[in-house]
Amino acid sequence: xxxxxxxxxxxxxxxxxxxxxxxxxxxxxxxxxxxxxxxxxxxxxxxxxxxxxxxxxxxxxxxxxxxxxxxxxxxxxxxxxxxxxxxxxxxxxxxxxxxxxxx
Length: 103
Known about the structure:
It is a single chain. The chain is α+β, with helices and mostly antiparallel strands. The chain is built from 2 helices and 6 strands; from the N terminus they run βαββββαβ. A 4-stranded antiparallel beta sheet has the order 2-5-1-6, covered by helices on one side. A hairpin with a 4-residue loop joins strand 3 (49-51) and strand 4. It is flat and about 40 Å long. The model has no long low-confidence stretch (mean pLDDT 93).
């Protein structure tokens, strides 16, 4: 089954440990719902930099990544449907979906 990279963008960091636990519980519940489709639950990411041949831009440019996961799905439409349930949407974030091309 094809794999798809989810790149999470946006959302805010929890302000308290209690809020962090609630957010994390929502992510775990979503991953549990996805079940075996979760090939790699991924992780949040820290400071990013966009590197071109001529420059380096701090913080990943206009829409920096905030995390990633790898999901198995039938096709990109299936992967997109699965991404609609992501908790990041509750805080204004988004999920970029791209097929992983095996080499």
